[in-house]
Amino acid sequence: MLESFQDVYLKDIPRGLPPIRGIEHQIDFTIELLTELTQRRVEKSKSSCVVLVILVTKKDRFWRMCIDYCPINSITIRYKHCLDDLLDELHGTCIFSKINLHSRYHQIRM
């Protein structure tokens, strides 16, 4: 392959890493963040735990936010509730709560 296409390949291969490039694009989240804060879909964190947030491009070229919850999962205390105990606690109650799914995942507290 190298012999067949010698004119395509560099004669002298550069050593080391390429020079550091500047930022080619910038995404301004300020307006979107202020909108989410005013609509109370998000709130300022009071937690001392930090998670990694990465934006990846989907097939339709829109952005998807991916969050690594491993640090939170490692410090989370797992509670195991027995279904029989939960049913005993609910016995005789008249009022039950439900989740309003209008805003979808924005209402799930992490």
Automatic annotation (TrEMBL):
Q: Its domain of life?
A: Eukaryota
Q: Which Gene3D superfamilies match?
A: 3.30.70.270, HIV Type 1 Reverse Transcriptase, subunit A, domain 1
* InterPro entries according to UniProt: DNA/RNA_pol_sf, Rev_trsase/Diguanyl_cyclase
This protein is called Reverse transcriptase domain-containing protein
Species for this entry: Mucuna pruriens
